[in-house]
């Protein structure tokens, strides 16, 4: 068994026993070909959770400071994130944020699975915010189906501003894939907006969150930060 599969099995077992994780809808997840996983985002651990619980290997992006922190803890986190395919991106740098979509495009063109949070950053008040159009750009560029995911309860595992991780029960609801026309570079801003809104509607139905028609922003970033991921 490969290192990734061992790590996934170990983390999955932890979540299902200690955290009593409940996952529904996996039977509809495409078994092959490129797939975009589009999820709401409530906690730092969401990427680890989805990487562990999805039936196929998912590449996610993470803030570079999570991966590049100093000391032994930083080195261990970097090694673990590399193992489960979480890619560091400096979201305070516009060129790095644009590069994030290129990373996703490359994974999809290779037939892999790429995870994205259309809100751009985690919700600190529990609302589901307006989706940013990077997810639709990838879908129309590649023709990859979008699997909407609703995460429920992970904000209680590690509330914003805390370091303590609590063994709290959570749920991951996986929806039916959404298929969009492959348009390559012929897609329009209007089409991307409409497709993104549909994706967010499906995520909302799965997560049960109240919604805000505003873009979410991280306290540590400028207002336009995280626009594409």
Q: What labels would you give this structure?
A:
7 strands; 7 helices; disordered C terminus; alpha/beta; 37% helix; seven-stranded mixed β-sheet; 14% strand; 229 residues
Provide an overview of this structure.
This protein is of the alpha/beta class. The protein has one domain (32-159, 166-207). The chain is built from seven helices and seven strands. The chain has a seven-stranded mixed sheet, with helices on both faces. It is globular, with a radius of gyration of 16 Å. The protein starts with a helix and ends in a 22-residue tail after the last helix. Mean pLDDT is 86; it is low at 221-229.
- What sequence of helices (H) and strands (E) makes up the elements? HEEHEHHEHEHEEH
Please give the number of β-strands.
7
Number of domains: 1
Distance between the termini: 32 Å
Helix content: 25-40%
Based on secondary structure, the structural category is alpha/beta
What is the makeup of the main sheet? Answer: 7 strands, mixed
The largest beta-sheet arranges its strands as 1-7-6-2-5-3-4
Q: How many helices?
A: 7
Overall outline: globular
Mean pLDDT, as a whole number? 86
- Beta-strand residue percentage: 5-15%
The low-pLDDT segments are 221-229
Specify Rg, calculated over alpha carbons.
16 Å
Characterize this entry briefly.
With 229 residues, this protein is an alpha/beta fold. It has helices at 3-17, 46-53, 64-67, 71-83, 94-109, 134-142, 189-207, and strands at 22-24, 35-39, 58-63, 86-89, 113-116, 146-152, 171-174. The longest helix has 19 residues, at 189-207.
Write the layout of secondary structure elements.
Blueprint: H1 3-17, E1 22-24, E2 35-39, H2 46-53, E3 58-63, H3 64-67, H4 71-83, E4 86-89, H5 94-109, E5 113-116, H6 134-142, E6 146-152, E7 171-174, H7 189-207
Parallel strand pairs: 1-7, 2-5, 2-6, 3-4, 3-5
Antiparallel strand pairs: 6-7
